[in-house]
Amino acid sequence: MIITVLGNTRIFQYSQTLLGKIFPRLRLKGTGRAKFALILVLLFQAMMVGCTTVAINSSMVDGAINSIATDEQPALSGNGRFLVFVSNREGQNQLFLYDLRRRSYKTLVELRRSLTVMESPSLSYTGRYIVYSANDSGRADIYLYDRLTYRLEMLTRGYRGGVRHPHISPNGRYISFEGSRRGQWDIEIIDRGPNIELDTETSLSES
Amino acid sequence: MINPYYKRLFIIGLLVICLGMVSGCAGYPRLLNLPPDLRVNSVNSPSTEMNPQISSDYLVFASDRQGRQDIYLYDRKQLELIDLPGLNSIDAIASEPAISTDGNYIVFNSTRGGQSDIYLYNRNTRQLRNLTDNLNAQVRHPTINADASVIAFESSLNGQWDIVVYNRYGQALNIP
Fold first, then answer.
1. Which of B21, B43, B45, B51 would best serve as a mutation to test chain A binding (most A beta carbons within 10 A)?
2. Cβ A189–B54 below 8 Å, yes or no?
3. Cα Rg for chain B, rounded, in angstroms?
């Protein structure tokens, strides 16, 4: 409220000087000039109100999780702040990362570039690591994307068999998935080793 | 004067250690060896295993190793399966489990007579809670966060798969 009042007085003063500049021959004095300026302020405010309502409406549409398209395979980050899911709202299956606290989307620039069908996303504790399966060339593989370093890594290079349903441990070290190298769906676990940067409470300190 | 035999032994030992270190360092990311075991108490079995979800201490998954599809919890420290009394039932297909980091809460999809529901199992109290009792829709793919405060899943309420976010007590969170 205070801000709007301050803003209005500033606009009021500004419009008064502006009036003097635009209409130098308009010899409005004292109250007449002030009235004219007041009308300008009100007009300006009406315009601003119109703009903000439009902006709120559009952001509500953009900021909602669900769309008129299919939204599926949700996965929460360990801290419960982020939700990653698959949606075909832009024509093909893509990953979307939603910030539940800010009610807005995080862009996954590197991932959106590729024209692959993405499935079964999974998040580590703060959402730093995203693991998903993608069908690139007729064969599904499991990928790990690091949101801090923007690095994309294929985890199942050389795996002899189909893979599906990957899931990353909250600290980011282990990835479990279903693999069919023995002729049936079995559980496989990938260990990324002790030297990786673990995703714990403090590692991705973005507010 | 060192005995040449011991010297050779020492060099061979050094080589072995070096090789071990090199292969150990280069081996990541590495696929763990989890061979199927005829015992019931292992990760893999001759039957199908589905939807594994891993944390540093636990591995939860669905398997039909005992003739019906049930949820299993594997303790990665003790290397054995943990009993889940009251979670699996004879007349329901349990699938798509997810677990909180402390291993206390397991959320999963249970299909009984064509109706799917999301259940939350509390290991401490051994209680099973149907989170979607009041939701007249098909549901699937539940997910839970580390401290079990948020649970999300898919619902077919609006005629297509949409995402619903609940808290632990089965109340929908106010998210657009």
1. B51
2. yes
3. 23
Q: How many CA atoms lie within 13 A of B9 on its CB side?
A: 5
Same domain, yes or no: A7 and A58? yes
The pTM for the full model equals 0.74
Considering Cα of B12, then B16, then B17, then B18, what sign does the dihedral take?
A: positive
Report how many domains make up chain A. 2
A91, A183: one domain = yes
Contact across the interface for A155 and B29, Cβ inside 8 Å: yes
A98: domain CATH number is 2.120.10.30
Q: Which domain holds residue A144?
A: 71-191
| Domain shared by A138 and A179, yes or no | yes
How far is it, in rounded angstroms, from Cα B18 to Cα B124?
47
| Residue at B36 is within a domain | no
Q: What is the pLDDT along chain A (207 residues), one digit of tens a residue?
A: 334 444 455 555 655 665 566 565 655 566 666 666 666 565 555 555 443 333 332 233 456 778 888 889 999 999 999 999 998 887 778 899 999 988 888 887 667 656 678 899 999 999 999 999 998 778 899 999 999 998 999 999 889 999 999 999 999 999 999 999 999 999 999 999 999 999 987 655 454
C-alpha B24/C-alpha A193 separation (Å) is 10
Contact (CB<8Å) B160/A70: yes
Pairwise CA distance, residues B173 & B166, whole Å: 5
> Averaged over B136-155, what is the pLDDT?
94
Residue B24 lies in a domain: yes
Residue A197 falls inside a structural domain: no
Whether B156 maps to a domain, the answer reads yes
Gap from B91 CA to chain A (nearest CA, Å): 24
